[in-house]
Amino acid sequence: MKTRLLTLFALAGILGLSACGERPQIVEYKQGKYQGKADTRPWEAPAFKGDKLAWENALRNRNQAQNEYKRVD
Amino acid sequence: MARMKFLCDAERCIECNGCVTACKNEHEVPWGVNRRRVVTINDGVPGERSMSVACMHCADAPCMAVCPTDCFYKTEEGVVLHDKDLCIGCGYCFFACPFGAPQFPNGPAAFGARGKMDKCTFCAGGPEADGSDEEFKKYGRNRLSEGKLPACAEMCATKALLAGDSAVVSDIYRDRVLRRGKGSEAWGWSTAYGKQGEKIQERTQERSQAQEGAK
Protein backbone atom coordinates (compact mmCIF):
# COMPACT_ATOMS: atom_id res chain seq x y z
CA MET A 1 0.00 0.00 0.00
CA LYS A 2 2.79 2.33 1.10
CA THR A 3 4.88 1.66 -1.97
CA ARG A 4 1.83 2.24 -4.17
CA LEU A 5 1.17 5.57 -2.53
CA LEU A 6 4.81 6.54 -2.83
CA THR A 7 4.92 5.68 -6.52
CA LEU A 8 1.65 7.59 -7.02
CA PHE A 9 3.11 10.68 -5.36
CA ALA A 10 6.33 10.33 -7.31
CA LEU A 11 4.40 10.04 -10.57
CA ALA A 12 2.23 13.05 -9.67
CA GLY A 13 5.38 15.02 -8.85
CA ILE A 14 7.03 14.10 -12.11
CA LEU A 15 3.88 15.01 -14.04
CA GLY A 16 3.57 18.28 -12.18
CA LEU A 17 7.18 19.26 -12.78
CA SER A 18 7.12 18.20 -16.41
CA ALA A 19 5.15 21.37 -17.17
CA CYS A 20 7.89 23.58 -15.72
CA GLY A 21 10.24 23.79 -18.65
CA GLU A 22 13.20 26.16 -18.69
CA ARG A 23 12.32 28.56 -21.43
CA PRO A 24 14.08 31.87 -22.13
CA GLN A 25 12.08 34.69 -20.56
CA ILE A 26 13.75 37.56 -22.44
CA VAL A 27 11.72 39.03 -25.27
CA GLU A 28 13.66 39.24 -28.49
CA TYR A 29 12.85 42.38 -30.41
CA LYS A 30 13.05 41.90 -34.11
CA GLN A 31 14.32 44.88 -35.99
CA GLY A 32 11.71 45.93 -38.47
CA LYS A 33 12.48 46.70 -42.07
CA TYR A 34 12.08 50.26 -43.22
CA GLN A 35 8.85 50.63 -45.16
CA GLY A 36 9.06 54.27 -46.19
CA LYS A 37 10.45 56.23 -49.09
CA ALA A 38 14.09 55.84 -50.06
CA ASP A 39 16.39 58.69 -49.08
CA THR A 40 19.29 60.06 -51.06
CA ARG A 41 22.73 60.31 -49.51
CA PRO A 42 23.83 63.79 -48.33
CA TRP A 43 26.62 64.15 -50.93
CA GLU A 44 24.10 63.47 -53.70
CA ALA A 45 22.39 66.80 -52.97
CA PRO A 46 22.84 69.72 -55.45
CA ALA A 47 25.57 71.27 -53.27
CA PHE A 48 28.04 68.43 -53.89
CA LYS A 49 26.58 66.64 -56.92
CA GLY A 50 27.74 63.20 -55.78
CA ASP A 51 31.27 64.25 -54.84
CA LYS A 52 31.63 62.28 -51.63
CA LEU A 53 35.23 63.35 -51.05
CA ALA A 54 34.37 67.06 -51.24
CA TRP A 55 31.47 66.51 -48.85
CA GLU A 56 33.67 64.65 -46.39
CA ASN A 57 36.30 67.41 -46.56
CA ALA A 58 33.67 70.09 -45.96
CA LEU A 59 32.41 68.20 -42.90
CA ARG A 60 35.96 67.54 -41.66
CA ASN A 61 36.72 71.27 -41.80
CA ARG A 62 33.53 72.06 -39.92
CA ASN A 63 34.37 69.36 -37.41
CA GLN A 64 37.84 70.75 -36.75
CA ALA A 65 36.43 74.27 -36.44
CA GLN A 66 34.82 73.10 -33.21
CA ASN A 67 38.25 72.68 -31.64
CA GLU A 68 39.22 76.17 -30.50
CA TYR A 69 42.73 75.02 -29.54
CA LYS A 70 43.36 74.24 -33.20
CA ARG A 71 41.78 77.54 -34.29
CA VAL A 72 44.05 79.54 -31.98
CA ASP A 73 47.29 77.76 -33.02
CA MET B 1 33.48 58.75 -42.47
CA ALA B 2 32.50 57.15 -39.23
CA ARG B 3 29.30 57.49 -37.27
CA MET B 4 27.78 60.92 -36.58
CA LYS B 5 27.44 61.70 -32.88
CA PHE B 6 26.66 64.44 -30.40
CA LEU B 7 28.79 65.00 -27.30
CA CYS B 8 27.98 67.51 -24.58
CA ASP B 9 30.73 68.67 -22.23
CA ALA B 10 28.98 69.22 -18.89
CA GLU B 11 31.94 71.26 -17.63
CA ARG B 12 31.38 73.83 -20.35
CA CYS B 13 27.61 73.98 -20.73
CA ILE B 14 26.34 77.22 -19.15
CA GLU B 15 22.62 76.49 -19.72
CA CYS B 16 22.23 79.40 -22.14
CA ASN B 17 19.73 77.41 -24.24
CA GLY B 18 21.40 78.73 -27.38
CA CYS B 19 21.30 75.22 -28.89
CA VAL B 20 17.55 74.97 -28.24
CA THR B 21 16.95 78.36 -29.85
CA ALA B 22 19.22 77.61 -32.81
CA CYS B 23 17.36 74.34 -33.45
CA LYS B 24 13.92 75.90 -33.20
CA ASN B 25 14.93 78.75 -35.48
CA GLU B 26 16.74 76.65 -38.05
CA HIS B 27 13.92 74.17 -38.54
CA GLU B 28 10.99 76.40 -37.66
CA VAL B 29 9.86 73.78 -35.17
CA PRO B 30 6.24 74.27 -34.07
CA TRP B 31 5.26 75.54 -30.64
CA GLY B 32 5.32 72.76 -28.06
CA VAL B 33 7.91 70.65 -29.84
CA ASN B 34 11.46 70.75 -28.53
CA ARG B 35 13.86 68.66 -30.50
CA ARG B 36 16.61 69.70 -28.12
CA ARG B 37 16.54 70.81 -24.48
CA VAL B 38 18.99 71.59 -21.71
CA VAL B 39 18.80 69.47 -18.57
CA THR B 40 20.33 70.83 -15.35
CA ILE B 41 21.20 68.72 -12.35
CA ASN B 42 21.34 70.38 -8.91
CA ASP B 43 19.98 73.60 -10.38
CA GLY B 44 20.99 76.63 -8.34
CA VAL B 45 23.36 74.68 -6.11
CA PRO B 46 27.10 75.39 -6.45
CA GLY B 47 28.53 72.75 -8.74
CA GLU B 48 25.38 72.41 -10.83
CA ARG B 49 25.83 70.70 -14.17
CA SER B 50 23.91 71.25 -17.39
CA MET B 51 23.71 69.12 -20.46
CA SER B 52 22.08 69.59 -23.82
CA VAL B 53 19.98 66.56 -24.79
CA ALA B 54 18.34 65.54 -28.06
CA CYS B 55 18.12 62.37 -30.12
CA MET B 56 21.43 60.55 -29.59
CA HIS B 57 21.14 58.66 -32.87
CA CYS B 58 21.68 55.35 -31.07
CA ALA B 59 23.66 52.56 -32.71
CA ASP B 60 20.89 50.14 -31.71
CA ALA B 61 17.96 52.53 -31.56
CA PRO B 62 15.04 51.32 -29.41
CA CYS B 63 12.61 53.57 -31.32
CA MET B 64 13.42 51.65 -34.49
CA ALA B 65 12.78 48.36 -32.71
CA VAL B 66 9.35 49.28 -31.37
CA CYS B 67 7.87 51.19 -34.32
CA PRO B 68 4.83 49.22 -35.55
CA THR B 69 4.90 50.87 -38.97
CA ASP B 70 8.70 50.61 -39.41
CA CYS B 71 9.00 54.25 -40.32
CA PHE B 72 12.57 54.61 -39.02
CA TYR B 73 15.74 54.20 -41.02
CA LYS B 74 19.41 54.75 -40.41
CA THR B 75 21.63 56.52 -42.88
CA GLU B 76 25.18 55.45 -43.79
CA GLU B 77 26.47 58.06 -41.35
CA GLY B 78 24.50 56.51 -38.48
CA VAL B 79 21.80 59.18 -38.32
CA VAL B 80 18.39 57.84 -37.23
CA LEU B 81 15.66 59.38 -39.39
CA HIS B 82 12.00 58.63 -40.00
CA ASP B 83 9.33 58.92 -42.66
CA LYS B 84 6.49 61.11 -41.38
CA ASP B 85 4.16 59.79 -44.06
CA LEU B 86 4.21 56.42 -42.32
CA CYS B 87 4.06 57.63 -38.72
CA ILE B 88 0.70 56.99 -37.06
CA GLY B 89 1.53 58.90 -33.87
CA CYS B 90 1.19 55.86 -31.61
CA GLY B 91 3.89 57.14 -29.24
CA TYR B 92 5.68 53.79 -28.81
CA CYS B 93 8.97 55.44 -29.78
CA PHE B 94 8.44 58.05 -27.06
CA PHE B 95 8.08 55.33 -24.42
CA ALA B 96 11.03 53.37 -25.78
CA CYS B 97 13.44 56.31 -26.03
CA PRO B 98 15.62 56.77 -22.90
CA PHE B 99 16.29 60.43 -23.82
CA GLY B 100 12.70 61.58 -24.46
CA ALA B 101 13.69 62.58 -27.98
CA PRO B 102 10.46 61.85 -29.90
CA GLN B 103 8.09 64.79 -29.64
CA PHE B 104 4.46 65.15 -30.67
CA PRO B 105 2.95 68.42 -31.92
CA ASN B 106 -0.30 67.97 -30.00
CA GLY B 107 1.45 66.97 -26.77
CA PRO B 108 0.14 64.21 -24.51
CA ALA B 109 -3.13 63.55 -26.34
CA ALA B 110 -5.09 60.38 -27.01
CA PHE B 111 -3.86 57.78 -29.47
CA GLY B 112 -4.25 59.12 -32.96
CA ALA B 113 -4.58 62.73 -31.79
CA ARG B 114 -0.92 63.35 -30.98
CA GLY B 115 0.09 64.08 -34.55
CA LYS B 116 3.17 62.90 -36.41
CA MET B 117 6.28 62.30 -34.36
CA ASP B 118 9.01 64.90 -34.67
CA LYS B 119 12.58 64.55 -33.46
CA CYS B 120 16.14 65.75 -34.01
CA THR B 121 17.30 64.80 -37.49
CA PHE B 122 20.97 65.72 -36.93
CA CYS B 123 20.05 68.45 -39.44
CA ALA B 124 19.80 65.74 -42.10
CA GLY B 125 16.16 66.23 -43.13
CA GLY B 126 14.15 63.21 -44.15
CA PRO B 127 13.38 60.98 -47.10
CA GLU B 128 12.03 63.83 -49.25
CA ALA B 129 14.29 65.39 -51.89
CA ASP B 130 17.26 67.14 -50.25
CA GLY B 131 16.71 70.86 -49.79
CA SER B 132 13.12 70.75 -51.06
CA ASP B 133 10.27 72.73 -49.55
CA GLU B 134 8.47 69.52 -48.67
CA GLU B 135 11.47 68.28 -46.72
CA PHE B 136 11.76 71.59 -44.89
CA LYS B 137 8.07 71.59 -43.94
CA LYS B 138 8.17 68.04 -42.59
CA TYR B 139 11.68 67.68 -41.16
CA GLY B 140 13.39 71.06 -41.22
CA ARG B 141 16.54 72.13 -42.97
CA ASN B 142 19.00 69.60 -44.39
CA ARG B 143 22.32 71.12 -43.35
CA LEU B 144 24.24 67.86 -43.69
CA SER B 145 23.61 67.81 -47.44
CA GLU B 146 25.02 71.37 -47.56
CA GLY B 147 28.24 70.12 -45.96
CA LYS B 148 27.38 71.69 -42.60
CA LEU B 149 27.07 70.27 -39.09
CA PRO B 150 23.95 70.55 -36.89
CA ALA B 151 23.02 74.16 -36.08
CA CYS B 152 22.89 73.52 -32.31
CA ALA B 153 26.54 72.47 -32.11
CA GLU B 154 27.80 75.10 -34.52
CA MET B 155 25.91 77.77 -32.59
CA CYS B 156 27.16 76.67 -29.14
CA ALA B 157 29.04 79.65 -27.67
CA THR B 158 31.22 77.68 -25.27
CA LYS B 159 31.59 74.75 -27.66
CA ALA B 160 30.16 72.50 -24.97
CA LEU B 161 28.04 70.74 -27.55
CA LEU B 162 30.10 68.99 -30.19
CA ALA B 163 28.69 67.23 -33.22
CA GLY B 164 30.06 65.33 -36.17
CA ASP B 165 32.21 62.35 -36.94
CA SER B 166 32.46 60.43 -33.64
CA ALA B 167 36.22 59.86 -34.01
CA VAL B 168 36.93 63.58 -34.49
CA VAL B 169 34.50 64.62 -31.76
CA SER B 170 36.14 62.28 -29.25
CA ASP B 171 39.60 63.52 -30.32
CA ILE B 172 38.55 67.13 -29.67
CA TYR B 173 37.11 66.18 -26.28
CA ARG B 174 40.18 64.13 -25.33
CA ASP B 175 42.48 67.01 -26.29
CA ARG B 176 40.34 69.38 -24.25
CA VAL B 177 40.38 67.19 -21.15
CA LEU B 178 44.17 66.77 -21.35
CA ARG B 179 44.73 70.52 -21.67
CA ARG B 180 42.25 71.18 -18.91
CA GLY B 181 44.54 69.18 -16.66
CA LYS B 182 42.89 70.05 -13.40
CA GLY B 183 39.62 68.37 -14.16
CA SER B 184 36.68 70.56 -13.35
CA GLU B 185 38.79 73.48 -12.10
CA ALA B 186 39.79 74.91 -15.46
CA TRP B 187 36.20 75.53 -16.46
CA GLY B 188 32.91 75.89 -14.67
CA TRP B 189 31.83 77.04 -11.26
CA SER B 190 35.07 77.05 -9.28
CA THR B 191 36.85 79.04 -12.00
CA ALA B 192 34.06 81.57 -12.23
CA TYR B 193 33.14 81.96 -8.55
CA GLY B 194 34.88 79.02 -6.80
CA LYS B 195 37.48 79.78 -4.15
CA GLN B 196 36.64 83.46 -3.90
CA GLY B 197 33.00 82.55 -3.47
CA GLU B 198 33.87 80.04 -0.78
CA LYS B 199 35.94 82.65 1.08
CA ILE B 200 33.07 85.14 0.98
CA GLN B 201 30.75 82.46 2.32
CA GLU B 202 33.19 81.67 5.14
CA ARG B 203 33.51 85.37 6.03
CA THR B 204 29.74 85.88 6.18
CA GLN B 205 29.43 82.81 8.40
CA GLU B 206 32.14 84.12 10.73
CA ARG B 207 30.46 87.53 10.85
CA SER B 208 27.06 86.05 11.70
CA GLN B 209 28.65 83.89 14.40
CA ALA B 210 30.42 86.93 15.86
CA GLN B 211 27.15 88.87 15.84
CA GLU B 212 25.38 86.03 17.61
CA GLY B 213 28.20 85.92 20.20
CA ALA B 214 27.92 89.68 20.84
CA LYS B 215 24.19 89.31 21.54
Fold and architecture overview:
The complex is a heterodimer of chains A (73) and B (215). The termini of chain A are far apart. Chain A has 3 helices and no strands. The model of chain A has no long low-confidence stretch (mean pLDDT 85). With 73 residues, chain A is mainly α. In chain B, the strands form 3 sheets. In chain B, strands 1-6 form a two-stranded antiparallel ribbon. Chain B is 34% helix and 12% strand. The longest helix of chain B has 26 residues, at 189-214. With 215 residues, chain B is of the alpha+beta class. In chain B, a hairpin with a 5-residue loop joins strand 4 and strand 5.
Summarize this entry quickly:
The complex is a heterodimer of chains A (73) and B (215). Helix content of chain A is 48%, strand content 0%.
Shape of chain A: rod-shaped
Low-confidence stretches of chain A are none
Q: How big a fraction of the residues of chain B is strand?
A: 5-15%
Radius of gyration of chain A, in Å, reads 33 Å
CATH first level of the largest domain in chain B = Alpha Beta
Cα-to-Cα separation, first versus last residue of chain A: 97 Å
CATH architecture annotation name of the largest domain in chain B: 2-Layer Sandwich
Helix/strand structural class of chain B: alpha+beta
Work out the radius of gyration of chain B.
21 Å
Q: How would you describe the oligomerization state of the chains in this entry?
A: heterodimer
Give the % helix of chain A.
40-55%
Estimate the global geometry of chain B from the Cα principal axes. elongated
| H/E element sequence of chain B | EHEEHEEHHHEHH
